[in-house]
Design brief:
Number of strands: 8
Distance between the termini: 66 Å
Strand order of the largest sheet: 2-4-5-7-6
CATH architecture of the domain at 540-713: 2-Layer Sandwich
Structural class: alpha+beta
Shape: flat
Helix content: over 70%
Number of helices: 24
Largest sheet: 5 strands, mixed
CATH topology of the domain at 540-713: Heat Shock Protein 90
Strand content: 5-15%
CATH class of the domain at 540-713: Alpha Beta
Length: about 725
């Protein structure tokens, strides 16, 4: 019975420890980046995610950083007209956050873990990253396995398996099959466990040199769990061979804790097969690897069982006492119970009856469930009390609601009576006032009529004079209004015409810029095809294939960016790196290169027209290094000067001719690029600066080209 429990602990250990290979940035480096208030949301998200790296065992300070994610992605996802790439970044951040909260919830026993997995699944599904979404479904299955909800466990595992099979993700399929096999072990379905564990192992049937640390860890887990299943089926030879395979592969990982646990399995297996001497050797090796009390507790307990089974009761008691002491220190009630029972039997067999009695009493106390029953009774009493108080409170609330309703009804009746009385009083007062107003009105009307008769006569004479004057004034006002309308119409027509002209010029400029970029694409593509053709003619097939692969990736980037007026500096640098890698291959690595960006520049938030730098880099390689057969050097630098962005490319070649600064060679690409720069800057006198690089003896040791790049900030 103990052996099964111990093997189960090993299975759980392997599952949990698999998260330990993630690398973690230091808190100081995260502090330094996040302290900059100017960084964009995307940079802040990347910094946090890279720093945490999906770890579920952070310090409190790490968790504080990670909890900065929800306000960022919550705010971002509420924005309208969001850039699709930025929206994907927000959605992915939300998925990663809830996935890791759920993973930590599994370890902490948080019942909300499934809800957090569902949120991760929701956000990742929206990004259409179905492989990552399936990973969250697997995590949900692991949670249900921990609480022994087998139907939901298998439902989630097989749901994830369908996604991985549709995506043909062999590695992930293997991982799910391993989880299913482990679940079968927990259900004690040994035969099915063996079937799924063996299916998972087929994925790792590759040369040892191709296996990563994580791969070797998974192989050890699978073989260890196969050993568990074979042991339960009494197939001792197969079990021992599985443990040996697990041990051989885990030794390469420099993981003493896992190695010691498998050595204990081998000791148990050797003892079951009757080889107590070999069992002792394995135990000694396990003892030597133990670096913490938890590992020692387990190894001592296994040694005690082996010696007890071999009837070496003194040795069994010695190791059981050490395991018991560590269990007390670690507050492990299960191990204390098991060791007290073993010590009772070992002392009894060796004739130490006083010690046996003490251990028997300790065992009875430890296994006695009275405390548990008392807790259950107390819980039941609390539940009854709660139900009674809740019922009583509900009755009081109901009575109070009835009283309130009666009181409200009485108030409504009184208010209605008062309103009716006020209405009658108001009507009576209104009638009296109306009669008074009628008398007053009749008197004033009579007086007014008399005044009107007199006034009409005077007004008739005055009106005739004013009518003549009004006619003159109306003509004057009409002519003035017509003139004003004519002037306003002319002004609006002029302004509308100017606006249309400005819009037309802007559209022409944009079309011209896109046509210029479109001209560059065939130029670059034809040059590259010529290069590939040359490699094939020289029978450099491998280089041609490599060149073609990199050329394909670069071409896709260029074609995608051709439709954009602006791209980020980071995208421009990535495209330049791909271009230089192709050129290195073409020129047999006769040169190396470096690309540097000034620290004050955030390459994610600065946007510039695409493909401005490539022609000048090409010229530096093709003409600047034409006298170099090896050890050429291209240096590219982006920097800010007086809030202006500059690009600089230098080489260590032959330089420009001494009698003039510019070369006679003017490629189509460079001509187009200069036209683009003039179009963006609106400066017909725009100049690309060139210089020779001189050593201390004024000898030319290279050339330098630099110019200002128009740019915008991310909104």
């Amino acid at each position: 019975m103990f052996k099964t429990t111990w093997l189960g602990i090993v299975i759980v250990f392997f599952f949990i420890s698999s998260a330990g290979y993630a690398q973690d940035k230091t808190i100081e480096s995260i502090n330094k980046i996040l302290a900059n208030p100017k960084i964009s949301d995307t940079v802040r998200i990347n910094t946090i995610l890279d720093g945490m790296d999906n770890s579920v065992t952070w310090s409190k300070q790490h968790i504080a950083y990670y909890n900065q994610l929800p306000p960022i992605f919550s705010k971002g996802l509420k924005l309208t007209n969001l850039n699709p790439k930025v929206k994907l970044k927000y959605l992915d951040a939300a998925g990663v956050y809830y996935y890791n909260v759920a993973k930590k919830g599994i370890l902490d026993g948080d019942t909300k873990a499934p809800e957090h997995f569902d949120l991760a699944i929701k956000y990742w599904k929206e990004t259409k990253d179905y492989k990552t979404m399936a990973m969250a479904i697997v995590g949900k299955g692991v949670y249900y396995r921990k609480i022994a909800d087998w139907p939901k466990t298998f439902e989630n595992f097989f749901s994830a398996l369908k996604y991985y099979e549709s995506l043909k993700s062999k590695m992930e399929i293997s991982q799910v099959e391993m989880e299913i096999g482990t679940t079968c072990l927990a259900q004690r379905d040994w035969e099915k466990a063996i079937v799924y564990l063996k299916k998972s192992l087929t994925y790792y049937d590759v040369p040892a040199s191709q296996l990563s640390i994580g791969d070797r860890h998974d192989i050890a887990v699978l073989n260890n769990n196969l050993g568990v299943a074979y042991t339960q089926l009494k197939k001792l030879s197969e079990a021992h061979n599985s443990y040996l395979k697990a041990y051989e592969v885990i030794k390469s990982n420099n993981d003493p804790q896992s190695e010691s646990l498998i050595l204990v399995q081998l000791a148990n297996s050797s003892n079951d097969m009757g080889d107590s001497a070999q069992a002792q050797i394995y135990l000694d090796q396990a003892f030597a690897l133990c670096k913490d009390d938890l590992s020692r507790q387990g190894v001592y307990a296994s040694a005690a069982r082996i010696y007890n089974k071999s009837k070496k009761y003194t040795k069994a008691a010695e190791y059981a006492e050490m395991s018991y002491a560590l269990a007390v220190k670690l507050k492990n009630i299960d191990v204390r119970t098991a060791m007290s029972n073993l010590l009772y039997r070992a002392y009894k067999q060796s004739g130490q009856y006083d010690k046996a009695l003490k251990m028997y009493e300790a065992w009875i106390v430890l296994k006695d469930s009275s405390n548990t029953e008392a807790s259950k009774n107390q819980l039941a009493q609390q539940q009854l009390k709660y139900d009674f108080e809740r019922k009583e409170l509900q009755q009081k609330i109901l009575q109070q609601q009835k009283l309130t309703a009666v009181k409200l009804e009485q108030q409504n009746k009184l208010a209605a009576i008062k309103l009716e009385n006020e209405k009658k009083s108001a009507q009576e007062t209104s009638r009296n006032k109306l009669a008074q107003q009628k008398l007053k009105y009749d008197f004033e009307k009579k007086t007014l009529n008399q005044k009107l008769v007199q006034g009409k006569k005077v007004a008739a004479i005055k009106l005739e004079g004013e009518k003549k004057t009004a006619i003159k004034n109306n003509w004057l006002i009409g002519l003035s209004g017509a003139l004003l309308l004519f002037l306003l119409g002319g002004y609006f027509y002029y302004r509308n015409t100017k606006q249309k002209q400005a819009i037309t010029i802007l559209e022409k400029d944009q079309i011209k810029q896109k046509l210029l970029v479109t001209q560059m694409n065939p130029h670059f593509i034809f040059n590259s095809i010529d290069n590939i053709q040359g490699l094939i003619q020289d029978k450099q097939d491998k280089e041609a294939v490599d060149y073609l692969s990199k050329f394909s990736k670069l071409t896709r980037q260029i074609l995608e960016n051709s439709n954009e007026n602006y791209i980020s500096l980071a995208e421009e640098v990535e495209m330049t790196q791909n271009y230089l890698a192709i050129q290195q291959l073409l020129y047999n690595n006769k040169f190396s290169y470096t690309i540097s960006i000034e620290d004050a520049i955030d390459s994610e938030t600065i946007f510039l027209p695409p493909m401005l730098t490539q022609p000048f880099i090409e010229n530096a390689i093709k003409h600047g290094l034409s006298n170099k057969s090896e050890e050429g050097m291209i240096t590219i630098h982006f920097y800010l000067k007086e809030s202006k962005l500059f690009f600089e490319v230098t080489d260590n070649g032959k330089g420009f001719e001494t009698d003039k600064k510019t070369t006679n060679h003017k490629s189509l690409a460079m001509t187009i690029t200069k036209e683009r720069l003039i179009g963006y800057t609106k400066n017909q006198d725009f100049l690309v600066q060139t210089d020779n690089i001189l050593d201390q003896h004024t000898n030319i040791v290279g050339a330098k080209v630099f110019f200002e790049i128009p740019y915008i900030y991310e909104n």
